[in-house]
């Protein structure tokens, strides 16, 4: 059981880290509002839940899948707006994007608070997500946990396929590695940047949808995970997808286990300390490769 | 730097802090100003660290908090003498320890019985932590975003650590109910006036020291480092040692601010240590102008005043406003108010020149004069 | 490892690989005092990497760099500089916000530690030195001009001047005349001729005409290895060199 709650945390962290790694690792943009995009996705799912249960009860069994898709779109669209109005002016200034996106996160948090109230909300999960598998009498695997993991794996695989096997993905990687040459061969680098940012935000939205199955959502839910997510990305080395996965897994499980042995917040303190120590020794993360500076 | 404009700035600040505000505000609001001024210490440190050396730290709350907690521990011990605490199960220890069933003072509290040690710790402890963290990171060329995120994580770490150990640190409520400093009651109105003026004097002394430091080779070197770190390194300078030094300096300044905060406000808690306060301290500097020591002070005063006003009348709007402020400063006013002030001065200066030397001087001279003025202001 | 006492700079078996790619492969290079050596080679041959290895910007995977018989590998960059090695970068790397005078002042080799910086005062000998170096680099009349306002060629000279302030015994220049007009090249050749007395100079350059004017000896690099070495005429007639440069 303990192992499984670690896995759920791992899924959320990984989904968030994926989006963030794409934005930060690929573009050097520091999006401190990433957690709020996740919360946005969660709130969208909540909205869908309320609307469907009130007005379209026939759709209840199906709404969740649609809601995930809507969460992706909503987060992506907001991301589009943010990129167009703000981020695109700040590409070569990572410290400035850090401050600007922090400001954005404050605005988004207050918007959530004003629109949805300060209390935490939970969408009503569909029937098929509730309950658990019982392969044997003693093992109890919650279905929503499995669902989240499956969703995470699919999305991770999807991202990998997209980045490394599709034309657009190729364009994205090319733009990151050599912007001038990419522009010279006809790749519209501005559109690629915009798309990259939106993709990252969209993934965060999906993370938010996944998050609704394991916890309730409040205006500051996003800020709870943002530091962890950054540490996952930095710890795993921003250039490696494998690193991000391993890092998310390690940190999530570590927190889970530490939380078991040490009371209250001290588990988190222990893990944080460990991560920071490692980062001080290997600042580029565990999986970074040596390149000519 | 020093020079004429430095003295003028100091005079204006002194007039504001020592005359205008004390005469026009009641003690309650003056005490608030005093509180805001303690944040200005952190802001000054950030001007040196971020504005000059180019290193953004999102964890200055750590050092503010360390200084504050040191002072709070001393004051709390004084307020927890066996006579006042005789109703506790264990008299002579702070109340929160008693609630947590501690039976004796933890070892690390004992040195804080002494005021000289406390005063030393207020400056030395933050500096020491900065030394360790700074050395580990700057030696390995960790900079920019990585450094910022790690300082954020450290701030989170410290606030969680304090939060989770109520018996040792007062936990989430912090250390409260502080009364006297060596018998002098710090809660009285007269004490608050005195502490306000002490804070102001300290601030002005430190700003003079900062100006002196920046007017010499160190100032030019920091500018050079911010602009072209590689070149500085290849001129034989130990860049990481410089950064560690400035980081420790900023930490010590923040610690002093923290201690003065505790004296004026009467408590400390983890809410002043973590991620949110640390990043708020950055906005003070960003608004005031990250390259200007005076800007930092005005920035701290302005933003905090705005925060108070909003919280009183429109609490919902405050976060919108602050978020918007972050964005506006980054995108529109990167040099903050000091930048706007400089721009105004330069425009006025060149207008004056144009007016004074109309037909005779060729136009090329004007920009050169403008750039000389800029160098003087620094 | 024998110490080569006659050579001021000795690179032996120097190798550096990035993720398996050998940018510099088993390099052996020796430079004597008062020598002006030019390294040439097609793009990607490893020329700038050699300079990076000597000044400590990149750490080699194998081999040694000895300067005046002191091992430089493993020393931090600022120590290497203090040992007498000066490096000029490919793009002019001066402090745009400071004046020519201040650029040179900051490069003066005193008060380079933290407390040295705080206590530093500009004494007459510093001013004297700044003026004489400024004179050497043709910027005597430009002491109060801001770095950003200088022409490209002047910025290159200023950077050389900043190196001269440190009184280095090894000066390394990466494409010093890139982007310069013919008149400026002329003056640069003259400058380099003057400053090569009493020290050794290592230059990476592409402009063959300039190279033949100034070089005492030329080393040709290709794919991280030396393929020819000698006087300019010798290497210009070397078939391997001609093949690599496609008859430049």
| DSSP, total strands of chain A | 2
Strand arrangement within the widest β-sheet of chain A reads 1-2
Average pLDDT of chain A: 81
State the helicity of chain A in percent bands: over 70%
Strand content of chain A: under 5%
Could you tell me the radius of gyration of chain A in angstroms? 19 Å
Structural class of chain A: mainly alpha
| Gyration radius from CA atoms of chain B, angstroms | 23 Å
Largest beta sheet of chain A, briefly?
A: 2 strands, antiparallel
3D architecture notes:
The complex is a heterotrimer of chains A (293), B (378) and C (248). Helix content of chain A is 72%, strand content 1%. With 293 residues, chain A is mainly α. Chain A has one domain. Chain B is mostly helical. Chain B has two domains: 332 residues, no CATH class; 44 residues. Chain B has 16 helices and two strands. In chain B, strands 1-2 form a two-stranded antiparallel ribbon. The longest helix of chain B is centred in the middle third of the chain and has 27 residues. In chain C, strand 4 and strand 5 form a beta hairpin. Chain C has 248 residues and is an alpha/beta fold. Chain C contains ten helices and ten strands. Chain C is globular. The chains are: A mainly alpha (293), B mainly alpha (378), C alpha/beta (248).
Feature tags:
heterotrimer; A: 293 residues; two-stranded antiparallel ribbon; 72% helix; C: 248 residues; alpha/beta; Rossmann fold; six-stranded mixed sheet; four-stranded antiparallel sheet; 35% helix
Provide a concise account of the structure shown:
By secondary structure, chain A is mainly alpha-helical. Chain A has one domain. Chain A is built from eleven helices and two strands, in the order H-H-H-H-E-E-H-H-H-H-H-H-H.
Could you give the topology of this structure?
The complex is a heterotrimer of chains A (293), B (378) and C (248).
Chain A: H1 2-27, H2 34-55, H3 63-85, H4 94-116, E1 132-133, E2 141-142, H5 143-165, H6 167-177, H7 179-184, H8 189-211, H9 221-236, H10 241-261, H11 266-281
Antiparallel strand pairs in A: 1-2
Helix pairs in contact in A: 1-5, 1-8, 1-9, 1-10, 2-3, 2-4, 2-8, 2-9, 3-8, 5-6, 5-8, 6-8, 9-10, 9-11, 10-11
Chain B: H1 3-24, H2 27-52, H3 60-79, H4 95-99, H5 115-139, H6 144-163, H7 166-169, E1 180-181, E2 184-185, H8 189-215, H9 217-227, H10 229-233, H11 239-265, H12 275-288, H13 293-313, H14 315-331, H15 336-356, H16 365-377
Antiparallel strand pairs in B: 1-2
Chain C: E1 7-18, E2 21-32, E3 36-40, H1 47-55, E4 62-67, E5 70-71, H2 77-82, E6 85-88, H3 100-106, H4 114-119, H5 124-136, H6 152-165, E7 170-174, H7 182-195, E8 200-204, H8 208-214, E9 217-222, E10 225-230, H9 232-236, H10 239-245
Parallel strand pairs in C: 3-8, 3-9, 6-7, 7-8
Antiparallel strand pairs in C: 1-2, 1-4, 4-5, 9-10
Helix pairs in contact in C: 3-5, 3-6, 5-6
């Amino acid at each position: 059981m303990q192992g499984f709650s670690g896995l759920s945390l791992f899924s959320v962290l990984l989904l968030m880290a994926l989006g963030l790694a794409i934005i930060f690792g690929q573009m050097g943009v520091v999006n401190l509002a990433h957690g709020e995009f996740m919360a946005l996705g969660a709130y969208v799912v909540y909205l869908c839940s309320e609307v469907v249960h009130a007005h379209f009860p026939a759709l209840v069994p199906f709404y969740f899948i649609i809601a995930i898709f809507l969460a992706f779109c909503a987060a992506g669209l907001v991301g589009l707006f943010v990129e167009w109005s703000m981020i695109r002016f700040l590409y070569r200034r990572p410290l400035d994007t850090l401050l600007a996106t922090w400001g954005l996160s404050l605005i988004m948090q207050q918007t959530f608070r004003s629109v949805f109230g300060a209390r935490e909300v939970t969408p009503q999960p569909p029937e098929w997500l509730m309950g658990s598998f019982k392969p044997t009498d003693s093992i109890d695997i919650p279905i929503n946990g499995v669902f989240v993991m499956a969703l995470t794996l699919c999305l991770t695989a999807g991202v990998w396929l997209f980045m490394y096997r599709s034309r657009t993905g190729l364009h994205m990687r090319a733009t990151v590695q050599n912007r001038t040459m990419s522009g010279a061969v006809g790749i519209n680098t501005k559109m690629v940047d915009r798309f990259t940012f939106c993709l990252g935000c969209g993934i965060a939205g999906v993370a938010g949808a996944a998050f609704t199955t394991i916890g309730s959502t409040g205006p500051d839910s996003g800020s709870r995970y943002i530091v962890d997510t950054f540490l996952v990305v930095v710890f795993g080395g921003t250039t490696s997808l494998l690193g991000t996965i391993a890092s998310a897994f390690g940190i999530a499980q570590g927190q889970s286990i530490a939380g078991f042995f040490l009371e209250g917040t001290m588990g988190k303190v222990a893990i944080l300390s460990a991560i920071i120590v490692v980062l001080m020794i290997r600042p580029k993360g565990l999986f970074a490769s040596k390149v000519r500076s | 730097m020093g020079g004429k404009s430095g003295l003028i700035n100091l005079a204006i600040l002194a007039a504001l802090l020592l005359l205008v505000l004390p005469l026009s505000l009641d003690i309650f609001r003056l005490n608030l100003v005093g509180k805001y001024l303690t944040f200005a210490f952190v802001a000054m440190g950030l001007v040196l660290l971020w504005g000059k050396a180019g290193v953004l730290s999102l964890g200055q709350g750590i050092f503010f908090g360390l200084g504050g907690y040191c002072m709070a521990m001393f004051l709390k011990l004084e307020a927890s003498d066996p006579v006042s605490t005789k109703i506790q199960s264990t008299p002579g220890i702070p109340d929160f320890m008693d609630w947590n069933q501690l039976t004796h003072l933890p070892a690390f509290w004992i040195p804080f019985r002494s005021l000289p040690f406390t005063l030393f710790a207020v400056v030395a402890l933050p500096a020491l932590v900065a030394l360790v963290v700074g050395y580990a990171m700057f030696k390995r060329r960790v900079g920019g975003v990585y450094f910022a995120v790690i300082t954020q994580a450290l701030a989170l770490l410290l606030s969680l650590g304090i939060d989770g150990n109520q018996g040792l640190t007062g936990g989430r409520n912090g250390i409260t109910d502080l009364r006297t400093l060596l018998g002098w009651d710090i809660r009285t109105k007269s004490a608050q006036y005195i502490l306000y003026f002490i804070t102001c004097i300290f601030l002005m002394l430190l700003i003079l020291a900062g100006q002196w430091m920046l007017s010499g080779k160190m100032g030019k070197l920091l500018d050079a480092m911010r602009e072209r770190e590689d070149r500085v390194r290849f001129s034989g300078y130990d860049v990481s040692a410089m950064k560690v030094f400035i980081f420790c300096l900023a930490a010590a300044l923040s610690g002093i601010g923290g201690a003065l905060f505790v004296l004026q406000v009467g408590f400390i808690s983890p809410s002043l240590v973590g991620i949110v306060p640390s990043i708020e301290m950055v906005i003070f500097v960003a608004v005031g102008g990250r390259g200007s020591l005076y800007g930092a002070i005005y920035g701290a005063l302005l933003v905090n005043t705005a925060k108070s006003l909003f919280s009183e009348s429109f609490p919902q709007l405050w976060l919108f406003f602050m978020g918007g402020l972050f964005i506006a400063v980054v995108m529109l006013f990167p040099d903050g108010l000091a930048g706007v002030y400089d721009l105004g001065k330069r425009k006025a200066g060149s207008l004056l020149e144009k007016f004074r030397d109309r037909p005779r001087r060729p136009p090329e001279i004007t920009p050169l004069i403008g750039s000389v003025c800029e160098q003087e202001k620094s | 490892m024998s110490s080569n006492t006659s050579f001021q700079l000795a690179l032996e078996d120097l190798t550096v690989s990035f993720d398996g790619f050998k940018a510099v492969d088993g390099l052996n290079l020796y430079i004597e005092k008062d020598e002006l050596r030019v390294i040439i080679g097609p793009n990607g041959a490893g020329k700038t990497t050699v300079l990076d290895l000597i000044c400590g910007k990149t750490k080699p995977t194998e081999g040694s760099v000895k300067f005046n018989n002191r091992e430089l590998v493993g020393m931090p960059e600022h120590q290497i500089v203090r040992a007498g090695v000066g490096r000029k970068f490919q793009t002019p790397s001066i402090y745009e916000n400071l004046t020519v005078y201040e650029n040179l002042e900051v490069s003066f080799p005193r008060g380079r530690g933290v407390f040295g910086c705080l206590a530093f005062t500009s004494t007459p000998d510093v001013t004297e030195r700044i003026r004489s170096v400024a004179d050497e680099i043709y910027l005597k009349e430009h002491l109060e001009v801001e770095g950003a306002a200088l022409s490209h060629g002047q910025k290159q000279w200023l950077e050389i001047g900043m190196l001269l302030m440190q009184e280095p015994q090894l000066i390394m220049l990466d494409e010093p005349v890139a982007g310069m007009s013919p008149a400026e090249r002329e003056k640069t050749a003259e400058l380099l001729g003057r400053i090569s007395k009493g020290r050794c100079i290592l230059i990476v350059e592409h402009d063959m005409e300039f190279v033949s004017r100034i070089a005492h000896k030329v080393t040709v690099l290709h794919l991280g290895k030396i393929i020819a070495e000698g006087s300019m005429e010798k290497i210009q007639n070397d078939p391997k060199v001609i093949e690599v440069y496609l008859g430049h």
